[in-house]
Amino acid sequence: MGGIHPSALPNEVLENKNVDYVIIGESEYSFLELIQRLERGESPSKIDGFGFKSGKHIKIKKWETRYFFILTIFNSKRELVIYFIYLFGK
Against a cut of 0.70, is the pTM above it? Predict the structure, then answer.
């Protein structure tokens, strides 16, 4: 699951019994990495900006590398976006 709610409140979202994984922040590359790791039978626990359940525990892997995917994906009026607030909240 991804989007604004899981990015802002990943623990709350993962408490739902129907949710196994959340992607925090921009997900274009994280989602692809999740699919590739699951196909190879590998643990997704090392994906940056990723949350998952491990038994009864919720694990959140914070971003170690800050990617600004929005800059490379969209041709937009970048000067209108306040990136710090967009990515990390207030």
Answer: no
